[in-house]
Amino acid sequence: MKQPPPILLPLLRSPFQGELLAWLFLHPESEYAQTDLARRFDVSLPTVSREVSRLANAGLVAERRHGNLRLVRAETDTAIARPLTELLALTYGPLAVLGEHLAEVEAVEEAYIYGSWAARYEGQPGHVPNDVDVLVIGAADEDDLYDAARASERRLGREVNIRRLSRDEWVSAEHDPFLETIRSRPLVRIKLESGESR
Asked: I need a labelling partner for 44 at 20 to 30 A (CA). Which of 139, 140, 177, 187 fits?
C-alpha cells in the first residue's frame, strides 16, 4: 500500500526518505553501511537499497563498495546540499540530532518528542512547528540537559525545550494534567545513540 506524502515535508515521497536524508545530511562526515541503515530505521535492506539507488541517481548521496558492504554518505559537493541540509534540519532533523546529544547525558533512560512536531510526524496536518518539545525520563542533571538542548538547537535551527521526569513520575503519576495530555497525543521515541559510523 502506498504511503501518503509526509506532513513534515510533503515534497518527499515517504517519511522514510525524510528520515534517511536527514540522517545522512546531518552527519555528512560519516558513511553508513546499508545494513546499518536498515537496522536504524527498522526497514528491510531492499527498501534501503531502492531508496539509496534513487537518491544516488539524483546525485544526492554517494555510494561506494567496501568488500561486501555498500556504504552511503551525503553528497555535499553540490549546489543543493546546503539548502537541503537546512530544510531537513527543520523538518526531520530532531530525530537525527536529539538522540546523539541525549545519549551523551548520564542517566537519560528514555526520551520522546511530543507536541506539534510529534503530531506532524504522525501525519496530523498543520504548520511546521517553530520548536521541538522533548520529554526525558530519568535522573539526568538539568544543566546537562540544558546543554544538550542548546547543542541541538544550533544544529536544528529552532528552539528545543526539554522537560525531565523521574521514572517514578512517568510510571505512577495519576491525574497529572500534563501527563494525561502527553499520553493522549502523539509521542515519538528518540533512539539514544551516537551518529558515528565508518
From this structure: 187
- Reference 134, options 166, 178, 164; nearest CA is 164
Contact residues for 143 (Cβ-Cβ < 8 A; gap 6+): none
Q: Which residues contact 127 (CB under 8 A, 6 or more apart)?
A: none
Answer for the pair 112, 189: CB distance below 8 angstroms, yes or no.
yes
Cα gap 22→25, rounded to integer Å = 5
pLDDT digit string (tens) for 17-38? 999 999 999 999 999 999 999 9
Q: Which domains does the chain have, with CATH numbers?
A: 15-91 (1.10.10.10), 96-189 (3.30.460)
Say if CB 8 and CB 92 are below 8 A apart.
Answer: yes
Rounded Cα–Cα distance for residues 121 and 35 (Å): 24
Angle of helix 45-57 versus helix 34-41 axis, rounded to 10: 120
In what helix (H) or strand (E) does residue 114 lie, and over which residues does it extend?
strand 108-114
In this structure, are residues 108 and 140 in contact, taking their beta carbons and an 8 Å threshold? yes
Pairing verdict, β 69-74 and 61-66: antiparallel
Residues in CB range of 192: below 8 A, 6 or more apart: 99, 102, 103, 108, 110, 111
Identity of the amino acid at 82: R
Q: pTM above the 0.70 mark?
A: yes
133-146 pLDDT, tens digit per residue, is: 999 999 999 999 99
